[in-house]
Every structure is written in C-alpha cells, then in structure tokens.
Design goal:
The structure is a single chain. The protein has 13 helices and 13 strands. With 391 residues, it is α/β, with parallel strands linked by helices. The protein folds into two domains: 13-43 and 287-388, Aspartate Aminotransferase, domain 1 (Alpha-Beta Complex); 64-283, Aspartate Aminotransferase, domain 2 (3-Layer(aba) Sandwich). The strands form three sheets. The protein has a seven-stranded mixed sheet, sandwiched between helices. A four-stranded antiparallel sheet has the order 9-10-13-12. It has a two-stranded parallel ribbon with strand order 1-11. The longest helix has 26 residues, at 285-310.
Amino acid sequence: MITSRTEATFLSPIVESRRWVAGVTFPDDRPLLNVSQAAPADPPPLGLRQALAEAALHQDDAHLYGPVLGRDGLRSALAEQMSSHYDATISPDQIGITSGCNQAFAATIAALCGEGDEVIIPVPWYFNHKMWLDLSGVTARPLQVGDDMLPDPAAAEALITPRTKAILLVTPNNPTGAEYPEGLLRAYFDLAQSRGLALIVDETYRDFDSRSGPPHALFQQTDWDQTLIHLYSFSKAYRLTGHRVGAIAAAPARLFEMEKFLDTVTICPSQLGQIGAQWGIHNLQSWLAGERAEILDRKQAILDAFPLLASRGWRLLGCGAYFAYVEHPFDLPASQIAQKLVTEASILMLPGTMFMPEGDQSAERQFRIAFANVDAVGIRELFSRLSQFQP
C-alpha cells in the first residue's frame, strides 16, 4: 500500500542509472562513455574559483542568511543581463534567485497550483518536472510532440480543463535538444494569456542556443509578467552545479507567493553560489561564448557522424544544446537495451522510457544522448560502438 507521495513517485533516472554501473569493471581499451547526465563534469574556471575563495575568506555575509529571493546585486546583474539578451526591459524586482533551477520550478508550481490542479507538459518531458508535479499532487497532462519534436498549440488547447493552471515548455529542450521557434513560443504565450493560464518557460540551456540574437520576444510583450514565468540555471553557464543557483523571472506578486515556499524549504540560496554567479555575469561572458562554441561544435559532430548510425537503422529525432534524441532499430525495448549497453558496449545512456508516460510504446524505441561531457572524438567513438552493437 502506498503511504506517501515519495512512494508514489518514480525514482530519478540519474539515480537509477548509476546503479547500473555500480560494481561493473570496464575494459582498459573500452572505458565507460557516460552520456546519461546533462551537467558539466569540470569545476568552474579558475577566476571564478578564486572569487569564491576570496569571498569565503574575507566576506562575512557569505556565511550568513540572506534575502529569501536572493542577493540584490545578483538580482540586478541578472535583470540587466536578461534585458540585453532579450532586447527587453526586466527589473530586479521581477527576478528571484533559487537553490537551482529545479527549485525554481518547485516554487513556481507551489505558487500556482493546488491539490488536483493540472499542468500541460510536452512529452518527452524532463523527468524532474514530472517528479515534482507528482510530489505536489498536481496532474501532468502529457502533450505529445510531432515528428519535429515540437508541441502543437492547438493540441495543447484541447487539453485545457477548468483545473489547468499552466503550460510548461523547455527550450532548448531537455531531452530532445529541440530549439522552439519564436513564433511557436508566441503562439503559446497568446494561448496562455487568452485562457488565463501561466506559461512557464524553462531556458536552462539558453546560453547554448545555436541562434544569434534574442531567441524570442516574450519579454517584449506588454505586461509579460502577468503570463510568463521564466526559469534559468547558472549551473550550466558557469559550472556551478554543486553550488545550486537558479533564477525565476516573474511578476513581483507571484514572486511574493514563491517566497513563502522558498523561505520554508531553504530560507535563502547559497551565498557563495550567488557571489559566484554574479562574478560570472560580470567577468565570464567571453569565456561563456567559448563554451557555447564548443557545444555547438559537438552538435555538429553529432550531425556529421550520424550517417554511420543511420546506415544501421537509427534515426536522429532531435539535436541541440546538450542533447541528441534518437530512435534505435532493434526489437528489444530501450529499457532493456540500456542495461546491455553498459555491460556490452561500456555506454551509459538513458532510454526514452525515462522521459515518457508509463506504457508509451514509442518510448521503448528512443534514447537521449547527453553530449556535454563527450567531445568530438568521444562522439565518434560513441557512434562507432553503437554501430557495432547488437542486443
């Protein structure tokens, strides 16, 4: 008998997949290729680490409680940076800082939804979003994407019920890598606005979007903050994964409600992490441009090398930011193939079943490849192993 929300919620795919490799010995000539997690494996650049060390040694408030919605300096710096990035006007009082982007989403749902409410979420979905909706007693209404990995606004509108509170989009997308066109985002904004819903747009990977200029004009809309709630992560931009710093852009009245949740859960975000994020905004933009160029090179390496897999029946469904989303040609389900890949090909890769509703048959044909920690040489090795793999 299920007695708690956590018992009713599936195990994190990252946690589960780590169990697959526990105790496995990999041959010296075939080390593990881990393409399961979308997180930088390297520490922040030296300058940022030095700034963190200086703050830890000499800045007393780095060790104390701070404002629940984040340090004023970071809120102002991010508002200025976003205003430039989106060619819009965003003020510090429309910015809240959180302990990672997952908490930004959690705070958003807590402020928007009550027990039994609904959120429309495209599938494949980011599993932590689905996990938090389950933990909150909020129903996730799955919205199937098309062959282009993009969700249709008309299909989303058909899912709206009196209990719907929000539509959630992720761009560039996790897990598919798809970059949502500006017109598509505007269509969703207009839909949400017309039906009195919130539009939650998670742009954790916005710094690695392949397009130049503002990726959309949502922040340029009049009263954007009455509809749009924007989520962001400093983890990917400045390698601050362990410091847990994320952000929300929303109406001050909504941030007021989120503040109640944040004060109850963590009281305030990590002071050192915030200091690092602010230092990064002011000092690492050229470095970040280089990181973006490297990720785009890896994306191109995926596109250039994929014909090898295509010749064996694989299909590339989406590719962008940190991810490629693929379809395999085998009779066995992806959930079984994933564990065979560990022992027979030294590859750790997450099956589509970890990103789709239970029982979805298409998920058993799909895999996510997270290539943020695999360079072009590693990508070629990955595809070589996959091309030779027979379950």
